[in-house]
Each structure stands twice: as C-alpha cells, then as structure tokens.
Automatic annotation (TrEMBL):
CDD domains: MAM (cd06263). It comes from Meganyctiphanes norvegica (Northern krill). This is MAM domain-containing protein. Residues 10-186, 188-359, 387-538, 549-715 form the MAM domain. Gene3D superfamilies: 2.60.120.200. InterPro entries: ConA-like_dom_sf (IPR013320), MAM_dom (IPR000998), MAM_domain-containing (IPR051560). One of its GO terms (cellular component) is membrane. PANTHER family: APICAL ENDOSOMAL GLYCOPROTEIN PRECURSOR, MAM DOMAIN-CONTAINING PROTEIN.
Length: 716
C-alpha cells in the first residue's frame, strides 16, 4: 500500500489489499508498465504465478512497451525515502523474470529526493535477459544513499536498441521491490535470525516427521542450547527433529535462489552444523543447473555423524569447494534422518564466496559433477600470499563480480611508458553513467603473520567526467571499505599508485571498482597490479634510480620535506579531524577520502605576512633531461589577499623569484599545477610559500600529491 510521508524503507508487492494503492505510491513518469496477474500468462509472457503469493491470482509489475511510446522507455518513480543515517548503506532487492535476451532490460537508479522527475539518478542495478527464464530470479545491490539522506528509486524499463521485440520476446515482470535501510544480505548468506533469508525450505514430506524449522536455543532443550552466530540462547538457527519411534528414513531440504556463475577458479560454500542422536546420519550438499533433470550430490558427510559421540551437540564447520557453469545454478542442503532413536540436526551461518577452499571436514566425500564438463570440482587452490598481473596473457584469476558492466581486457592504449606489454583492463565506453564494474582477487592469506602489504598499480583516466577508480578491501564478512578513489582526469598518460593495506583475516580480498561517468569518449583503465608483501614505505617513493619522485604526505616523515615556520606553519592533516579550525576540502587528493593526508597552511584573521614555507629535498638532474613539477592544491581564502608562491631553487639562486603564483580562491576544490624546471640547473628543490593579508574569516591553502616527472610539462 501507499507509504506515509517520511518513510525510511519501502516495499511494493503490487497486491490489492483492501483500499491499498497497488502502485505503492509509484509515480508514472512515462507509460509502459502495467499490473498483471498469473491468470494473464496465457496471453502474454509474464510468469504463471507471482512471487509474493506463488499463485496465479497474485499481482506483479509488467513491462510491455506500448506502440505510442516513441522513446521506447518507461519510467516509474518511488515516493521520497529518508534514511536515518547516510553513513549506513541501504539495500535494493527485486524479483524479476525475463523470457528472452531480446526482451529488453530494467535499470534501477537512485535520484536525489529533491530532483525534478526528468533528472536521471545514479544507476545501482540492472536486470536483463542474460539468463532468460520465466522462473523468478533475485536482483540485489547494496548502495550508499546520497549525502542529503533523501532519495527516490527510479525504475526505468527499456527495449533493446530502442526497438520493441516481438510479442513472444517482449515483457519483463517485477515483484516484491524493496528498499531497506541496512546493507544487503547476499544470496546464500544467512544467519537464520527469524528468517531463512533467500533460502526456501522444501515441501513437507513423511507427514512432517523430519522437516527444517526455524528455532532458538531458548525454545526447547531438545535443540542446540545456543546458535552459532551469537552463541546465545536467543539466537536463531535451522533444525530438523526426528520424531521418536518413527520407522524412517525421512529427509528434508533447503534450497537456494538461483545463483550466478562464478569464475573457473571456483567457489566455496560454507556452513556450520550440529547434531544429536545416533541415527541422524547424513548431510549432503547438492548442485543443480536448469538443464539438468536432477540434483547432483557434490559433498556428503555420513560416517562422521554416527561414529564419534564426542561431537554431539556442538557446532562444527563445513566447507564445500565447487565449480559452477555458465548458467545460473542452485544449491541444496539435504539432510536424512534414519530410524530408531529420536534426534536432531541443525545448521547455521551459511555463506558462498568466490575462490576455492579446502574440504572440511576431511572425511567428507566430494563427488565430481559429471553432467557438464564445466562443472567439475577442481583441486582447492590455496589462498594467495602475493599476486601480480600485467594482463598480457590473461587476467591472472581476477574475478569479475556480478555488476551492471564488466572490466574488459583491451590493448588499444599506449602502455609502453610503464610496461613492456600492451594489455590492460578498461571500462567499456558506450554504457550509461553510473554503470559499475567490480573485479576482485582470490582470498589472500598472510604468511608468517606478515599483515602489512602494499598494492602498486598504474591507472589511466583521460577526459573530464569520464569516471572513477576505487580500490576496496574486503575482510571476511565485514562491509567492504574503499581505501583509495581517483576520479580526476590525468591526461593521456599512465600514473602510478601506492596503497598500504593491513590484512586482518584469512579471507581477505582486494577489489577494483570502476564507475563510468557521463563522458563516453574518455578512458578509464588499470594495469600492472602488484601486491607486495611489505609496506609501501620500504620502497616508496622510488623503487629504482630514475623513477620520478612523488609524495602524497601519507607518511609522517613527509618524504623528507621540511617546514619553515613564518607567522604560522604547514601541518600534515586529514579532513575528518574534528579539531581542525578551518573548513577543509571534503577529502584529500590522493585517496579521495576524509582520512587521507595533505599539507595545510591556515590563514587566520590576526596575521599579515608570510605564513609558512614547505621545502622539498634536493634533486640532482641528468643532462639533457626535461623535468616538470606537478602538484595539487586547494585555495580556500580571499582572492588577491592570499598568495601561494612556488619556487624552483638551485644553489645559486640567492634572490629567487616565484616560478608560479596563485592568488585566486577556489573554495574546497583540488586544482593541479605544472611547473617546468629550467634545463641549465644541476640540482634543484621546490618551495611552496604561503602569504596572507588580514581578513575577517579563516581560510586555508593545502598541498598534496607532488610529483617530479622526467618529461616536458606539455606531455603531462
């Protein structure tokens, strides 16, 4: 039904409940969507039952492009949603069917709550006919709400290539569209706290003598006393109880939603189990693809459940390595109870991760999958200790995650300025703004407790508003964290990035995210990624003589830069520091986060004259070599009353003059500057001098990402 004003979550099942609005407050911006029921399936391509009720009387949203829709696009917009905390991610989940690869697609975008209806938001999810089926499939995506805390969901349906398909190929159905104010729990992952998440319990058989049910330890002394997730009596889990004196055997099943293909490097399904009673004897994990006529057992635990009385009642870990093929698959947990004694079996904390794992317990039987050559179970691959890839032969096991677009291996750019090869990963060009690609490494393990690592790679961002690159760390089940983001255009050249990371779990991954901007002609690419088993400071800023020197001020040593105080000073700061007396830029330039460091000279209202000077180390030059100084700065002050002077100084400059001067304020915005070094110098160093006149307000001038290039400034 229609939600009240000020809603923090929103859900629409398109059902008519009394006087409820079947559209749930959705605003029709452009026609093309309609409400259908399963009984309409005979004359259309919608499924025979809806998702909410599972009956032919249930309602669903259906996309059918009308002949008078000249743009071949249909748009709905949700009521305004206000989240209580913008720092907490929200979740969009939607159930859909798509009968054909030619039936078109539906995009879901997040629009600022105050934006006009014709302004497109940022895309967070797209469902299409990649895996055509009239069975209900799940689309799900975690997203960060806009800074205003207020947004609307845009549902945009479109036929392929702007042309409607045939009657047999048209039509996408949606149901149970839902936004919640907490991160998504991904398919296959469940702690069973009051629900089975995206798992479905099989139909009751054997007169209910042995059937999965949700329970807590506080309900009955027959079940586990505590769940595994919280180790508390009030915690939830799933269990099946074999009734006393039942002649048996009996079985019960738990089935996942359709899950999407994983790379050839494999996947890992994990869960925790507990049991009580001698004849609760078998747990199996099964795999099924749509083309298979039956389920295939890929993992089975039999003897362990009956042979060792010491394991009774305790939680035990299980892991199942497997490979899926190129079509969606499902997983089933199948438990068998045998006759004689009463007993129970319980499971908790299921999870599916990309990357293989070892078989646990070792006594479990792993059965190779035989119907398809692409679904055999590989020997588990050990976690990575270090990793590197130049993409010249392949992607080195880097795995594309299921997002709206994929990183593509290309070779059209000039890579010779940093690599002997020509291949790299880039974002596709002709895609919508906001389209996201995400690729991740296999799990990385820290050998001998060495948890300090350095990621080194090259990136290429050419063209204004082309897009951005983020490096994200994922520690086990914790929320992924972006540790580096760059979206500023850097010109037609490759740039090197160094990022320190700390491993905190054995299931640690590095993810590379690319988000496309409005400029479809620009280029966003990454190359030559290396994960080193040492801190960046051990070889930064130079790995070998001749490599251009750079400083991002992330280290407290300041790369051996010196500060000369005047009436103030240069301080190494970060924007999220609550003790700052000035209004900082929203983030540093290096990592584009509030915790990245830069140098800042504060402009106060009680000073007149030189504030401070920042001095670099001395650099020796090579004859007949061009040098260019590049740096980024923010001038938040008063135009023509504050000055940033930059000097390129050698040992004979007794009365140096500024080589570059800035006196125009650009509040809160990082700008770049390039200064050529005169060729007749044997050595030089740089000085950034800040001057101010008295004023009525507090301002700041900041410096970040200084780099000495061995090339002409015109080539940067």
């Amino acid at each position: 039904g229609t939600e009240p004003p000020g809603i923090t979550e929103w859900h629409c099942d398109f059902e008519s409940d009394g006087e409820d609005d079947v559209w749930c407050g959705l605003e029709k911006i452009q026609n093309g969507f309609e409400i259908k029921h399963g009984t309409d399936a005979a004359t259309g391509t919608n499924p025979a039952t809806d998702h909410t009720t599972g009956t032919d009387k249930g309602a669903m949203l259906y996309l059918s492009m009308p002949s008078n829709n000249n743009t071949q696009r249909s748009i709905l917009r949700s009521p305004e949603i206000n989240v209580p905390d913008i720092s907490v991610s929200s979740c969009l989940s939607v159930w859909y069917t798509n009968p054909s690869p030619h039936a078109g697609f539906i995009k879901f975008k997040i629009q600022n709550g105050s934006a006009p209806s014709d302004v497109m938001g940022d895309q967070i999810l797209m469902v299409d006919g990649t895996f055509p089926s009239l069975e209900w499939q799940l689309g799900i995506e975690t997203f960060l709400p806009p800074a205003s805390g207020s947004f609307r969901l845009q549902i945009i349906g479109q036929s392929p290539n702007g042309k409607p398909g045939s009657q047999e190929e048209s039509g996408i159905a949606l149901d149970d569209v839902k936004i919640t104010d907490e991160p998504c729990q991904m398919p296959g992952t469940c702690s069973f706290q009051g629900s089975t998440c995206f798992w479905a319990i099989g139909e009751e058989e054997n007169n209910g003598q042995f059937h999965w049910h949700l329970h807590t330890g506080s309900e009955n002394t027959t079940w586990p006393k505590n769940d595994h997730t919280f180790q508390e009596a009030a915690g939830g889990y799933l269990s099946a109880h074999m009734k006393k004196n039942y002649s048996g055997p009996a079985h019960t099943s738990l089935e996942s939603v359709a899950l999407y293909p994983t790379p050839l490097t494999g996947s890992c399904f994990t869960f925790w189990w507990a049991k009580q009673g001698g004849d609760i004897a078998t747990i199996q994990v099964l795999l099924k693809e749509p083309s298979w006529s039956s389920w295939m057992v890929i993992w089975s635990l039999i003897g362990t459940l009956t042979a060792d009385p010491s394991i009774e009642g305790d939680w035990h870990f299980a892991s199942v390595p497997f490979n899926a093929s190129s079509v969606p698959f499902k997983i089933q947990i199948f438990a068998i109870g045998h006759k004689k004694d009463a007993g129970w079996i319980a499971i908790d904390d299921t999870d599916i991760q990309e990357g293989t794992c070892e078989v646990i317990p070792p006594s479990a039987i792993v059965v190779p999958v035989t119907p398809s050559p692409t679904t055999t179970v590989n020997t588990p691959t050990p976690p990575l200790n270090s990793w590197e890839c130049d993409f010249n032969e392949n992607v080195c096991g880097l795995q594309n995650v299921n997002t709206s677009i994929k990183w593509e291996r290309q070779n059209t750019l000039n890579c010779t300025d940093h690599s002997e090869g020509v291949w790299y990963l880039s974002l596709p060009k002709d895609v919508d703004a906001g389209s996201k690609a995400l690729a991740q490494t296999r799990p990385i393990q820290s050998p001998e407790n060495i948890d300090a690592r350095c990621i080194v790679f090259y990136y290429y961002i050419y063209g204004a508003n082309t897009g951005q690159i983020s490096v994200i760390t994922k520690h086990g089940d914790f929320e992924p964290e972006a540790i580096w983001t760059q979206g500023n255009p850097k010109g037609a050249s490759w740039h090197k990035a160094y990022i320190d990371v700390t491993l905190t779990t054995s299931n640690f991954r590095i993810q590379f995210e690319g988000i496309k901007g409005q400029n479809k002609e620009g280029e966003v690419a990454i190359d030559d990624i290396v994960l080193k088993d040492q801190q960046c400071s051990s070889f930064f800023p130079t790995e070998k003589p001749g490599v251009p020197v750079a400083c991002d001020f992330e280290e407290s040593s300041l790369c051996n830069y010196e500060v000369e105080d005047g009436k103030g000073t240069f301080d190494r700061v970060y924007s999220n520091d609550p003790n700052l007396i000035f209004k900082p830029p929203h983030a540093d330039h290096t990592y584009n986060t509030g915790y990245g460091h830069y140098m800042a000279a504060v402009l106060t209202d009680d000073r007149d004259g030189k504030v401070a000077t920042l001095k670099s180390p001395k650099y020796d030059t090579v004859q007949d070599t061009s040098y260019c100084i590049e740096f980024w700065y923010v001038h938040s002050g008063t135009t023509s009353r504050d000055y940033l002077n930059v000097y390129i100084v050698n040992e004979f400059d007794f009365f140096p003059h500024p080589d570059w001067r800035e006196e125009s304020a650009h509040v809160g915005k990082w700008l770049s500057a390039n200064i050529p070094v005169r060729s007749n110098r044997k050595s030089f160093h740089m000085e950034w001098e800040v001057e101010q006149q008295k004023r009525d307000t507090v301002g700041v001038i900041t410096i970040d990402d200084v780099e000495v290039h061995l090339k002409d400034c015109k080539n940067i």
